[in-house]
## 1
Amino acid sequence: MQRRDFLKLSTALGAASALPWWGRAFAAERPALPIPAVLEPDESGVIQLIAQPGQMHWRRQPTHSWGYNGNLLGPTLRARQGQAVRICVSNRLAETSTVHWHGLEVPGTADGGPQASIPPGKQWRAAFRIEQPAATCWYHPHTHGQTGHQVAMGLAGLFILDDEESLRLPLPQRWGLDDIPLVLQDKRLDGQDQLDYQLDVLSAAVGWFGDLMLTNGVEYPSHAAPRGWLRLRLLNGCNARSLTLAASDGRALYVIGSDGGLLAEPVVLSELALLPGERFEVMVDARNGKPFDLISLPVRQMGMTLAPFDAALPVLRIQPSLIEGKGRLPDTLARLSALPEWQGLPSRTLTLSMDPELDRQGMQALMSRYGHAAMAGMSMDHGSAEAGMTMGAMKGAQGDAGGMAGMDHGDMVMPAGEMQHGTMAGMQGTMAGMQGGKGSAKPLDLHSGNRINGQPFAMNDPQFAVKLGQTERWIISGEGDMMLHPFHIHGTRFRILSENGQPVAPHRAGWKDIVNVEGGRSEVLVRFDHPAPRERAYMAHCHLLEHEDTGMMVSFTVEA
Ligand SMILES: [Cu+2]
């Protein structure tokens, strides 16, 4: 062995032993991180997207999945500021779908909301010009009542925007090498290894969640990266799960961009929370050549606390190679305009709420299926003050336990890791019978169980009209319930004034299209520069997809 090779090898071994336990166990056998290809327009200048069925191999048996132009997820679309984009979406699925360009400032007619349905076998053409600056956006279905299912099946992709200034920055720009797209999603499979999706009282209340964590469609992949600065383009593509990411060795995360574009300057964090639908661009320093993991920290969100998310969970191994890195972290990134004087601006209040009966039944179902471990500190035990204070409906659940009365809570608690899907299926059957029985105080219409300003979503009934080009202050209130509501507004990028009554964190103070609403009032400054007519109104909704699908969405027009 040459001395040089020996040095390389011993360095590699030294680094390997510094890995956490999972790294030592799996370092050699992790699959490579799949990189979604950038899809170029065809010879006529049109980007061709095809929603189609596919197949994945996550467990023993093949899993039926959906993807754009492939088995799962979709290619990356990429366009520059000033560019005219034409996209043709073909639907080869057996059900109607739509495609929404999440984060793009395009007219309502091109936005791909729930009205822009594409029946099976049909096509939809969208044409628009990119006017906004560089950002990491995405695309996904927006079929009302079906969005959660269609995203769970695999339909989602990145839509990256560039501008002259962003391309001039010394940031890493080698796609899939040091400019790394990361779509993070959790999924749940049934006993036949098929996607186990239901829109039921449980998912309508807390969202659909799973126990299989995927990064670009693969469980804990590994990426051979240059030894240098790395740019991670993170998308939380989960239906309902909020993620908090960190580096396994505690190295810094330098946030350089949020949903709607680059920040003014990097913000250094040790951990970064991403709500469903949110994107952040993060730089990490891999110049020391040591491998590390991107990990998901244990979560506290209702329903999301079950294994494997109850502990640090690796989502990506970064294995620096001997290739020298290019690019670096600049001190300044983009010009971020100062907030306008907003005291006198028109304001609107959107109040998010859940039918107390849905809340009650959802909590019962969560407790019954998964036990205390899923309750995120909430408890249905008698005498729990916490439950009464935080979940209005929990009081009701305790007061008239009805169908729960005969159940021994002690028996329902089981380590999540030991749960078998077969057992769960049986329990679900039992619960379904109970929910239809004496437990219900009044009939619950699941599909209108979530509301904005007291109304469930009505497709053909825009709730208000915004004046084109007028900056408004929107107050989005989740007061009265403790659920997480990542609130998204179409057709715009906004600036957050406050989140849940707190000053906005520096890395969330740039351009955003999702704001956190969790038990408090959040305020954003919003402006629409494109029209949205009545028949193609914009949407504003909770991006916890099962809340959206069961009514927590409002439509509005933008008019000159
Ligand atoms: Cu919500």
## 2
Amino acid sequence: MSRMNIEMNFFLRMRSWSLILFGMVFVAWGCKKEDPIPTYVEVNELDFSFSGAQGTKHQKISHLWVYADEILLGAFPLPAKIPIFCNQSTCNLRFYPGIRDNGSSDTPEIYPFLDYYSTTIPYKSGEWQTVKPVFSYNQNTRFLLMENFDFSNQFNVDLDGNPNTTHMASPDAYEGLASLKLTCDKNNPLVEVANNSLITNLPTNNTSPVYLELTYKCDLPIGIGYILTRNGREEKKLHAILNPRAEWNKVYINFTELFSQSGTTGVQLFFTGSFTQYTGLETQASMWIDNVKLLKF
Ligand SMILES: [Ca+2]
Ligand SMILES: [Ca+2]
């Protein structure tokens, strides 16, 4: 082989290797473009920033609706692990708090009275970052009724008319000094109490949200109802039933469609329990309620 042929051969081999190397770099770059690695956000805890006049900070947020740079990523149950892709070196995140309407497990909703939480994080490919959202009530939130049973009890109207079924302050409270305890028994099976004043100033546009927040535990199912005055007529209805719970639970009762209708001049709320023979139940049954708030805009 002549010297020229050897040099030409060497040159061609070098060129092939260069092309292969260039191709590998190109493919690697192409893969990186097609499969970016997310940064992972972990949300294990939430915080609430309420004023003293806004009552308990105890909330039960079950989901977070998450946006990254204005794109909805979905609803994530808590604790949440969220893969996030962003186009820039930082990501703007928004978290909307989700609740289960009327305690039902299959209807998570964004809770309209808590503002979303917004934060900006660095886009660290493949790395975990922890975010702790802090939620506050929207500044337009109004409290139609607020009762923590520590120094007073607005739920003192005995609708059942039977003095043997009781409603009284109990030191067994979720928070503070007292809760409201309702009792009934085998021989006095129905207990029913309402709040003692007509709640007025309800919205009348048919769509503005109205929610009842409360914390409870109970031997028997608790019924939550209302006595509504609309166009001069009064109607009494049971709206939601909460199953027995040995531990305190928080619930959000959605009254929007009922309390926001035009012509509604006022409403009273009531709690009710009916004694039945449940396994393990003796002759008396009790229900405890704490931290009641009725909210509107
Ligand atoms: Ca209390
Ligand atoms: Ca009674």
